[in-house]
Amino acid sequence: QGQLVESGGGLVQAGGSLTLSCAASGRTFSTSAMGWFRQAPGKEREFVAAITERRGVSYYSQYADSVKGRFTVSRDDAKNTVYLQMNSLKPEETAVYYCSAGLKPGASVASPAGYVYWGRGTQVTVSS
User: Fold this and answer.
1) Contact at 8 Å (CB) between 47 and 38?
2) Contact 122, 20 (CB under 8 A)
3) Which end of the chain is more exposed for a tag (fewer CB within 10 A), N or C?
4) How far is CA 120 from CA 7, 33, 36, 55, 56, in A?
5) What pLDDT digit, counting tens, does each position of 29-61 carry?
6) Which residues, in sequence order, are CB contacts of 46 under 8 Å at separation 6+?
């Protein structure tokens, strides 16, 4: 049984930066893609970024169009941790950010329904 715990959220001014961390325990997720999603009040959970498991010597990442060039997803399998570096944050990106893991076979990394494991989320608030 795996658990995911996010940290690093907080209050930041528009244009600022935050780095979120997601620490996994209970099992290793080194063979699974891991993702970041966010959910604002009254809205559906939306895809932010994902990173594949190691393939050869590389990892592959995917981003929502709205965050490309500003957010960077990375992982440290030795620490069983995935990170989300967020730069140039905007007020409309205020949301609870969730970490996910355990991608189901054939599922899209960008689909919330594709993941088995979820953290409880960390609040990110961007003030204008």
Assistant:
1) no
2) yes
3) N
4) 10, 18, 12, 28, 31
5) 999 999 999 999 999 999 999 999 999 999 999
6) 37, 38, 39, 64
Tell me, what's the pLDDT at 68? 98
- Given the structure tokens 């959220």, which residue do they identify? 9
Residue burial 64-92, b: 16+ Cβ < 10 Å; e: rest: beebeeebbbebebeebbbbbebeebeee
Query: CA nearest 53: which of 76, 35, 30, 36?
Result: 30
Interacting residues of 99 by C-beta distance below 8 A, sequence separation 6+: 4, 6, 20, 22, 34, 35, 36, 82, 118, 119
Cβ distance 126 to 12 under 8 Å? Answer: yes
Q: What is the mean pLDDT of residues 95-118?
A: 96
Counting other chains too, the contacts that 112-117 makes at CB distance below 8 Å and 24 or more residues apart are 112/37, 112/45, 112/47, 115/35, 117/2, 117/3, 117/4, 117/24, 117/29
- Both tokens of 62, joined, read 């995917």
